[in-house]
Structures are given as C-alpha cells and as structure tokens.
Design a protein that fits this description.
285 residues, Hypothetical Protein Tm841, Chain: A,domain 3, alpha/beta, Rossmann fold, four-stranded parallel beta sheet
Length: 285
C-alpha cells in the first residue's frame, strides 16, 4: 500500500506568517492575557500582541499547548481523508509539552501512523522543516526519506538572539543557565542560543541591547564563514532593525540575494518579550 503523507507543524514555527502552496495542518497553542484566552494567530497576531505588551508592560501572559483532544480531531480527519501517515513537527520538547501531547493523541487513532519529529528548535527553523516535508510529500517521497531530510536540517541549523529583558524567559522557565550566572542576569542583555539539545542557554554576558545585537551578528558571521547556507532573521517589534541587518548580511555575503524576515508568533513572543531579535542559519545539503 502506497503512503499518503500529511504534514502537521505547531504554530510556534510561525508558519502562519509564511505564504506557501502546501496543505499543512497547524497545531496552535493558546495564549492567556490577563485571564482572556486567545488562539495563537487566529484570535491575536504578532503586531497587536507586542503593541499590547509595550503599552501594558505589567500584562500577565501565559501559554498552553494544543490539547490532546484537538490534536486527535485532526488525526481522525486525516484518517477519513485517506492519509496513511502524518509527520508532526513540533517545537523543542525542552520548551513545550506539544510533542508529548502529539504522541498521546497519536496513540488514540486506529489506522493513521503518526510520526512525531521533535525539531529541537522553534520559529523559522521549525517552519522550514514543515515546508521541506510538505514539498517532499507532494513528490511522493517516503516517510523515511522525509524524516532523514528533517534530521539533517535539525542537525544543521542555529539561532542566536537577544532580548530586551530576561523576565519573560526566567518567569516561564525557558532559560537554562549555568550555575552562578543567574544572580544579576535580569539586568543584562545576554547573547542567547537555542542549543543542539533544544534548550535556550545564555552564552555571553552583555550589558546593553546595542552590544547584544552586535554580538548576535558577530557570532552569526563567525559560524557561517565558507558555508552554503540559508540565513533568516526573527523579530518582534523591530522590523526596521531586521531590514537593516538583512541588508548588512547581503552586503557581507554578495552571493546571498535574500534574507527571510519572520515575526515571532505571540505564543513564542510571550516567552521572550517585545524587543527580542535573532539571526539564524540553515546549512544547505
């Protein structure tokens, strides 16, 4: 029996902000703002969310991943549509319980084979995996071929970023820090990275936002020397900075003709806060 493969990705990828021709289902998380619940992207988009955080800095924000019940509904619909397999690409399991919920829901279907792929990242790097998977599925490539390609992307991408304040990351427990590093951390603007293990780690102490962005760029240029890669920028409230840095990258690497600019969707932005800015790259095979 031939495979009919569906692709699913969680909304933490920012896939909702990317125009594409594929049929990709999205597991969207919920955002709780001062007791009011929103479905990510559907009920509130990035610009409106960050404007609210800036105007109301004491806003109480929390998030919750897609429920197992909603995931099950998607799986059951795919079964009725004749799909034999579903590849589910999730945000790093160190940053959310989405992967675990997807596994549990997958155990409740009778015929659909559900393959959970932990991206060990978030934002555009995760979205890239979904887009590549959907393209491969459209060409009738197998589950094993798709998973092999996704593994390559997972093993060959990196995102460095800086935030205006660490209070969101610390409050929500998304920041892993070395012993003795947390003391005055909230006063700093450290260089942060999503590690190969899918954790957010502070790797350098920096005291101003300007210097933090400078270090993000320096780290990016240092690691991409001589590589064949796709660059991208993730941003929150700073689109003009994103455009300026994109132009810098294209001047630095004349062979690069485009740098993707991608907003952080609210459920990710809730953990990094307004002003977060990052540069990433994906090595081409």
């Amino acid at each position: 029996m031939s495979e009919k493969i569906a692709i699913i990705v969680c909304g933490n990828s920012g896939i909702d902000y990317i125009k594409h021709p594929y049929q990709i289902d999205v597991f969207r998380s919920l955002l709780n703002v001062n007791g009011e619940e929103f479905e990510d992207f559907i009920d509130i988009e990035a610009n409106a969310f960050y404007e609210r955080l800036i105007k109301e800095p004491n806003t109480n924000v929390s998030t919750s991943q897609t429920s197992t019940g909603k995931m099950l509904e998607v799986y059951q619909r795919l079964e009725t549509e004749g799909f034999t397999d579903a590849i589910v690409i999730t945000i790093s399991s160190h940053l959310s319980g989405t992967a675990q919920n997807a596994i549990l829901a997958g155990q409740m279907v009778d015929h659909l084979r559900v393959h959970i792929f932990d991206s060990l990242t978030a934002a555009y790097a995760e979205a890239k995996m979904a887009l590549v998977a959907a393209e491969m599925a459209s060409k009738q490539m197998s589950v094993s071929q798709i998973l092999k390609k996704l593994t390559f992307i997972r093993d060959h991408n990196r995102i460095y970023f800086a935030v205006d304040t660490l209070k969101y990351l610390v409050k929500n427990g998304r920041l892993s820090a070395a012993k003795g590093f947390m003391g005055s951390l909230l006063k700093l603007k450290p260089l942060l990275v999503i590690t190969k293990e899918g954790k957010i780690v502070a790797v350098k102490k920096i005291r101003t936002s300007v210097k933090a962005i400078k270090h993000v760029k320096e780290q990016f240029y240092e690691e991409t020397k001589g590589l064949d890669f796709e660059p991208f920028i993730i941003y929150t409230t700073n689109i003009e900075l994103a455009k300026a840095v994109a132009n810098e990258i294209m001047e630095h690497y004349p062979k690069i003709k485009q740098v993707g600019l991608f907003p952080l969707t609210p459920v990710v932005g809730a953990h990094v806060g307004p002003g977060a800015f990052g540069i990433g790259y994906i090595i081409n095979k």
